[in-house]
Amino acid sequence: MPIHRAVSRLLKPRSVAVVGASDDPRSIGGNVLANLRRAGFAGDLHLVSRTKAEIGGHPCVASIDNLPVGLDAVVLNLPQEAVLDAIAACGRRRVGGAVVFASGFAEAGPDGRALQERLTGLAR
Fold first, then answer.
1. I want to staple 20 with a disulfide (CB 3.0 to 4.6 A). Which of 51, 77, 85, 107 is the partner?
2. Backbone φ and ψ of 73, nearest 5°
3. For residue 124, what pLDDT is reported?
């Protein structure tokens, strides 16, 4: 796939999943969801929550592996230790791109940099 098509899927998605979705607008997952609604996102929206069956009337699935194949973009709001597995799951679901809200990677020193390099390899 040409790089401009891959970037377009992330920047102008027709389908988005929010992993770590929340109904609390003070949380990252809740803020992302509120911003999508406020911006009038009209595409397919999928929510992933381990603890909620629905948020704001929108059904949730328990894991990335339960998402449809081929989503354009996934927003990951997860602890650092869950990110690598989440990116691998996104690969299995053929997601176009991911935005990761997590700390503990290159900014955390050599160990974090090594994790970030693994993350980059998985994403490719």
1. 77
2. -145, 145
3. 84
Mean pLDDT, contiguous 10-residue spans, the chain (124 residues): 71 96 93 94 96 94 98 96 96 95 92 92 88
pLDDT number for residue 8: 86
Q: What is the 3-state secondary structure (H, E, C) of the chain?
A: CCHHHHHHHHHCCCEEEEECCCCCCCCHHHHHHHHHHHCCCCCEEEEECCCCCEECCEEEECCHHHCCCCCCEEEEECCHHHHHHHHHHHHHCCCCEEEEECCCCHHHCHHHHHHHHHHHHHHC
Q: Are 105 and 115 in contact (CB under 8 A)?
A: yes
How far is the CA of 96 from the CAs of 3, 14, 41, in angstroms? 11, 11, 17
Q: Is the pTM of this model over 0.85?
A: yes
Distance CA 93, CA 117 (A): 21
